[in-house]
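A quick aside before the break. I want you to see a complete sequence-to-structure record at least once, exactly as it would be stored in a machine-readable document. Don't worry about memorizing anything.
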Amino acid sequence: MAALATLPPLPPQFKSIQHHLRTAQEHDKRDPVVAYYCRLYAMQTGMKIDSKTPECRKFLSRLMDQLEALKKQLGDNEAITQEIVGSAHLENYALKMFLYADNEDRAGRFHKNMIKSFYTASLLIDVITVFGELTDENVKHRKYARWKATYIHNCLKNGETPQAGPVGIEEDNVDVEENEDAGATSLPTQPLQPSSSTYDPSNMPSSGYTGIQIPPGAHAPANTPAEVPHSTGVTSNTIQPTPQTIPAIDPALFSTVSQGDIRLTPEDFTRAQKYCKYAGSALQYEDVGTAVQNLQKALKLLTTGRE
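That is the input. The structure line, written in tokens, reads:
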């Protein structure tokens, strides 16, 4: 991919999008689609913040040039030309990164790479808003990922061993500030304390990401940030991929034919198309389980009129 034009210095007004732009740069070669939408999010957000002062106008103009160049380079990519495919691609990528970090956390393997994965997942969920409002599950995943990055980063920085897995979030206390260090975040002014009401992502519906079914313990994505974990003073075991859980296939689907009295609505066709797109996106990450589940959903909907 051809090199993109360099952006001018980031205006202070745009501090809130600096990490999204950094994520875009990190993905220019790793996943250009992700890089494109990170810049699109930054562009849309920057326009809302300040599009009038000269330095902001200059920055946004150069960012627009980058977007146009990327769109031209990716012109034949369905994830760019079709929003439904782009949305599925981005959601699947963000959730894979979240699950990688969550699996490392629950296994007690604390390192800079997993902190960055948590934080990057939260940034990518921000980016999903270019397609519309976030689902409640997306919002909860974003809050948990950003808080976890904060908590673990500060524990390691202070020489403390983090508590693995969900330890509870005081809802009114989650106010993280962005920090240049480690691409993560800094702790809120008041330390978070375990509460009686713990937030556990594993208790959330598996269909939290717009119908994409992800089995617990999914393997780390191929596109997880590849930097080498730094020494943290905390023992870290060798990362081993977790075997994928392949869902059982309903035998009835093999012999199912559409009933003559089934009348599918335009919305049914749209949902079936989404399931097929999600399956295709999952296969890009070699996630057979997710692909099979979504294809079964599409087939059942088309042959029975029900999900």
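Two observations worth writing down. The longest strand covers residues 177-178. The beta strands are 177-178, 185-186. We'll return to this after the break.
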